[in-house]
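User: Quick sanity check before I run a bigger batch. Here is a single chain. Can you write out its predicted 3D structure?
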Amino acid sequence: MLSLPPLRLIGQASSINVRKVLWTCAEIGIPVAREDRGGEAALRALNPNGLVPVIEDEAGVLWESNTICRYLAAKHGRADLLPAAPRARAEVERWMDWQATDLNASWRGAFMGLVRRHPDHADAGRIAASARAWNGMMRILDGHLARTGAYAAGPDFTLADIVLGLSVNRWMMTPIERPALPAVAAYLTRLTARPGFREHGANGVP
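Assistant: Done. Predicted structure follows.
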């Protein structure tokens, strides 16, 4: 078996979006050469948005975390992580897109205010509203996981669980009042059995 060359990954390991890529690489077995983001000008030369993660391989530069995860799974033939069949793939991508849109939008105010302590997110009313919205999104996830009985796209682990698992970890680590969500709790226990999640998710970083 040929060894893979390290994948160049730009972005600090504390970033939840960088950790999506790190966990994906761990599941696939891709060695990673990670670099911190460096200067703003250098980063924008690779991604005009100035955001991480960015990867570079023999095909060139790619950015957007969920896209990178899908690319790496497809490139390395990991149909278990990203199915080839259109409907099965759509089930995975639906929950990846939900994480990147509805779920992310809900937590921003609470997380930025309570964990990052960002001055633009210091308003207590907005923090409380964000926490309520976040809990509402997590109730949606809990109901869905109760129906599948296992993972986001069904009985098997996929890329959807990488992006959602990191978000569940963030929800658990943010100091807000949380409802008891038994399906989410069981899901987190299942994910904790995976070495990639222990290294890049349940590692003390929200």
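The two ends are 36 Å apart (CA to CA).

User: Great, the batch can go ahead then.
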